[in-house]
Specification:
The chain has three domains: about 190 residues, Heat Shock Protein 90 (2-Layer Sandwich), CATH 3.30.565; about 120 residues, 2-Layer Sandwich (Ribosomal Protein S5, domain 2); about 160 residues, Ribosomal Protein S8, Chain: A, domain 1 (2-Layer Sandwich), CATH 3.30.1370. The protein contains 20 helices and 26 strands. The chain has an eight-stranded mixed beta sheet with strand order 5-4-3-6-2-1-7-8. A hairpin with a 2-residue loop joins strand 4 and strand 5. About 35% of the residues are buried. It holds the Pfam family HATPase_c_3. InterPro entries: DNA_mismatch_repair_CS (IPR014762), DNA_mismatch_repair_MutL (IPR020667), DNA_mismatch_S5_2-like (IPR013507), HATPase_C_sf (IPR036890), MutL/Mlh/PMS (IPR002099), MutL/Mlh/Pms-like (IPR038973), MutL_C (IPR014790), MutL_C_dimsub (IPR042120).
Length: about 625
């Protein structure tokens, strides 16, 4: 076939496929233009999930009349004065408006600052009209109608209106997080609006977008390494989700969905979260624009770092350090779930009917207790006689606590203390000696009881704590094993016959560059020809392993991230298995001092708020919430 030159309209439609994937892509490009224009207020209106109508209105600087025609032509932009290495704006490629105009009907109205009138230009599937005068007080209005109507191959792959509207909202939420000083408003055909008012600071905007419960169930991140800074909030490991939609990552204020950053985020939670759960996080990376390439894809969602290993190490290290320094923190979701179930069950319980027949002889209460023949109050002793079931033996009159306490029998007095009263003795028999000082000194308070052979109930100054003894002890054993393992060079197992693993020349070279680091983990390797590696030692703790697969995983990880986490994670997995089987089992009855020793160990151990599998080790119920359940507040 002969080579021919494609016409400009077809070229625009092909290029639009990379920029305009769905209505949410259009909203992203238009809102980014509004942000770059210095807008303080951005409104987004949609109909038909964005397929029928998309309108973005801003109060930015606007576009002069003589530049409107250039704004809808490919590769025309005002944002690359500093070149590709000094990109300081969200948009820079000059492709958004012409790409949208090639697959839809586009209307662009704008009034530049200082101009007395506004102008409009129309683009109908590549055909341009204008500019011509129009009415507009300030800023810019971009209206997109009938997206993909003349490109049915793209239209049929769009999802339902609800799914497309949800994608638009997600895009706006991410941009709103990046720009807290801008007011965002999204409205649909039903005239309901989602509004993110201009916030005083990033903390307020995070509360608006992600939710106030996230702020109370997260730790602050602020770390810096070699002029790269990481800030934001990371959710507690027990405050997790079933998908990754609540992960917001930004590079120099640009929302991104980079797989390396997502992998680093997972690495920071590797030891404290179940594999089928996803963390909630809002993290901002700030670095010199020359150290990151944002011109990877027209959608500008991917980035490439000059030193990805440094960035990954910063994120993983900052997250782990923040969790270690945050102390014992339990997600409020666990307590909220318990309280909700209690309230729900209380609502379904039918109270027993109450009937009062007076104090006549032979009368009965509805609960079957005999009515006393006289007042239960005895004025002679200032005490109450307890009611008792009919037909039971008479209960002796209770001790008169208004009189002086009786002298205890010999041997009941504790050394250095006054004798225990009957009530104190009964209390000690149930919960042990008085440990009220522990309520103030220790975050997890004092152990009071064990329930069902697995749950420790402890009293704290703020309420009570319920501890899963097996999960808690499993974390303690696991952390002790990791410290013993990684605190020194790991013992290795010498292979009787070295195993030769064939790799590519690049992979072999990469592995041998890290041979000394791998040797500390018990993996001894050396070069064996141009494209092979000889393995002479393996970590003894791993036992029998697939050496070839391990090396290939390592080489892939070193190529992508420059780390050796594959070996470390496998060793940690063994340690976690040992910890699980060597921990206090469910059903074991613990003494009071054993329960308190477990609580003290949790308070000294990093990441003790969750077990190795990501489950919470304890749930805290506040005294205020408990009192509300009983109607005391």
């Amino acid at each position: 076939m002969a080579i021919v030159k494609l016409d400009d309209h077809l070229i625009d439609q092909i290029a639009a496929g990379e920029v305009v994937e769905r209505p949410a892509s259009v909203v992203k490009e238009l809102v980014e233009n509004a942000v770059d224009a210095g807008a303080s207020r951005i409104e987004i209106a949609t109909a038909g999930g964005g397929k029928t109508l998309l309108r973005v209105t801003d109060d930015g600087c606007g576009i002069p009349e003589d530049e409107l025609a250039l704004a809808v032509r490919r590769h025309c932009t005002s944002k690359l004065s500093g070149g590709l290495e000094k990109i300081a704006t969200l948009g820079f490629r000059g492709e958004a408006l012409p790409s949208v105009g090639s697959v839809a009907r586009l209307s662009l109205r704008s009034r530049a600052e200082g101009n007395g009138e506004a102008f409009e230009i129309l683009v109908d599937h590549g055909r341009c009209e204008g500019p011509r005068p129009t009415a507009l007080s300030r800023g810019t209005v971009v209206e997109v109608r009938d997206l993909f109507q003349k490109v049915p191959a793209r239209l049929k792959f769009l999802k339902s209106e609800r799914a497309e509207s949800s994608a638009i909202t997600d895009i706006v939420r991410r941009l709103a997080l990046a720009e807290p000083e801008i007011r965002f408003e999204i409205s649909g055909p039903d005239r309901t609006a989602t509004v993110f008012p201009a916030a005083r600071d990033m903390g307020e905007r995070i509360g608006q977008v992600v939710g106030e419960d996230f702020a109370t169930n997260s730790v602050a991140i602020d770390a810096e390494r070699e002029d790269i800074r990481l800030t934001g909030l990371a959710g507690l490991p027990t405050f997790s989700r079933g998908n990754s939609l609540q992960q917001f990552l930004f590079v120099n204020g640009r929302p991104v969905r980079d797989k390396m950053l997502v992998s680093a985020l997972r690495g920071g939670y590797a030891d404290v979260m179940a594999k089928d759960r996803h963390p909630v996080a809002v993290l901002f990376l700030t670095l010199d624009p020359a150290l990151v390439d944002v011109n990877v894809h027209p959608a500008k969602a991917d980035v490439r770092f000059r030193d990805p290993g440094l960035v990954r190490g910063l994120i993983v290290g900052a997250l782990r350090q923040a969790f270690a320094q945050s102390g014992l923190r339990s997600s409020s979701e666990g307590a909220a779930g318990i309280l909700a179930r209690m309230r729900a069950r209380a609502d379904t319980v039918t109270p027993a009917p109450r009937r009062f027949d007076g104090f006549a002889p032979g009368g009965y209460f509805a609960d079957g207790f005999a009515a006393p023949r006289q007042s239960p109050y005895d004025p002679g002793t200032s005490a109450f006689r307890p009611l008792q079931p009919a037909g039971t033996a008479t209960i002796e009159r209770p001790q008169d606590f208004s009189a002086a306490p009786p002298t205890p029998p010999a041997g009941t007095a504790m050394a250095g203390t006054a004798a225990l009263s009957d009530a104190d003795a009964a209390r000690e028999a149930f919960v042990g000696p008085d440990v009220s000082s522990q309520l103030e000194t220790y975050p997890l308070g004092a152990a009071r009881a064990q329930l069902h052979g697995n749950y420790i109930v402890a009293e704290t100054e703020r309420g009570l704590v319920i501890v899963d003894q097996h999960a808690a002890h499993e974390r303690l054993v696991y952390e002790a094993l990791k410290e013993a393992i990684h605190g020194r060079a790991l013992p290795s197992q010498m292979l009787l016959i070295p195993e030769i693993v064939d790799l590519s020349a690049d992979d072999a070279e990469r592995l041998c560059e890290h041979a000394s680091d791998l040797a500390r983990l018990g993996l001894g390797i050396e070069r064996f020809g141009p494209a092979a590696v000889a393995v002479r030692e393996t970590p003894a703790i791993l036992g029998q392993i697939d050496i070839a697969r391990l090396l290939r995983d390592l080489s892939d990880e070193l190529a992508e991230f420059g780390t050796r986490d594959s070996v470390t994670s496998r060793i940690d997995h063994v340690a976690a298995t040992v910890a699980c089987h060597g921990s206090v089992r469910s059903g074991r009855i613990l003494k009071l001092d054993e329960m308190n020793a477990l609580l003290r160990g949790m308070e000294r151990t990093p990441s003790a708020s969750q077990c190795n599998h990501g489950r919470p080790t304890f749930i805290e119920l506040g005294l205020d919430d408990i009192e509300k359940l009983f109607g005391r507040r």
